[in-house]
Amino acid sequence: MQLHDLTEVKNYNYGIEKIFTEAKDFLPINGTDYVELYVGNAKQAAHYYKTAFGFQSLAYAGLETGVRDRVSYVLVQDKIRLVLTTPLRSDGFVADHIRKHGDGVRVIALWVDDARKSWEETTARGAESFMEPVTTTDEHGEVVTAGIHTYGDTIHMFVERRNYKGVFLPGFQKWESDYNPISTGLRYIDHMVGNVELGSMNKWSSFYEQVMGFANLVTFDDKDISTDYTALMSKVMTNGNGRIKFPINEPAKGIKKSQVEEYLNFYEGPGCQHIAVATNDIVFTVSEMKKRGVEFLHVPGTYYDTVAERVGSIQEDMAILKSLGIMVDRDEEGYLLQIFTKPVEDRPTLFFEIIQRKGARSFGKGNFQALFESIEAEQAKRGTL
Q: N or C: which end of the chain has fewer CB within 10 A?
């Protein structure tokens, strides 16, 4: 976020501290436990995420472990766990999800100390239950899980694993593989963005506030996020310790179809638009991912004509950032570097953001214009603008 007025900056940062202080504590969350994607071919998807993103093999569940209707591969990189799940038959909820949405995020699992209490607190406040608390066990201990519905077909699972020492969850076995490419330096999930229909942003931001005890960290309107053609609005919701941040986007009226409308059309409903993953060295991470075939959005060359004036002194070589298409923005706490992949499947839906925070706690408001222009250029190629 680019804030030019000192008073505005101080007020903004005071507001952040106030938000973290006042966020409700009835649902303490330790972090993201895992993200589960339902995909058409988990074996091949796992190979892609290992090769292109640098994930490692962790765990597996399928026919060999007694699961008869689906197969799941678990990948890990530092604190990030991805679960890729494919149905073994054409019927069932996994197949139905893929038939409607294509490959996409089904479960955003949250690591908690007490899954039963988390479920009780949220359902008592109005959440629709997906799964009542269940305790599963094996020789490594026990895990308690429970779930609630959120926007679209997306699920939040509460995972309590303090009494478990196994590789992932009961029912999974260690996945041994001779093929484990080196890490690209991804460390943890910084935030995950949900796209919802026009008029639904306030509904779902209220859901996170009232049902889950989150607070509104920052709001962007169509004046903040727009071009001559398209616009969107967003509210960033955060839990009390700031480890979980969920921006909620809705389309705003524009001359042409925005990226949110394109997503909703092709995903056929609300869902997770992108996963932002953090790195300590974005130049290394992006360089490696490019070598491995990951495609990133093209940033207009004119963006770099004024970026140094806008963000001031940074440690990185601006010429290298320009060659890689990495954008920069600053707030009073520091600066951040970020870049966005193109969609990682054929439907123009889910993509990833790579982000490195050098003190900044904002979301790159100063980059919104260039980012939107880049996305619109891709939309124009697809004939969906």
A: C
The reported pLDDT for the residue numbered 361 is: 84
Buried b (16+ CB within 10 A) or exposed e, 204-221: bbebbbebbbbbbbbebe
Per-residue confidence (pLDDT) for residue 366, from 0 to 100: 67
pLDDT at residue number 123:
98
Residue stretches of the chain with pLDDT short of 70: 1-24, 222-230, 255-256, 364, 366-369, 372
C-alpha to C-alpha distance for 274 and 64, rounded to whole angstroms: 32
Tell me the three state secondary structure of residue 189: strand
Q: Mark 165-177 as b/e (b = at least 16 C-beta within 10 Å).
A: ebebbbebeebee
pTM over 0.85: yes
Q: Residue 109: left (phi > 0), alpha (psi -120 to 50), or beta?
A: beta
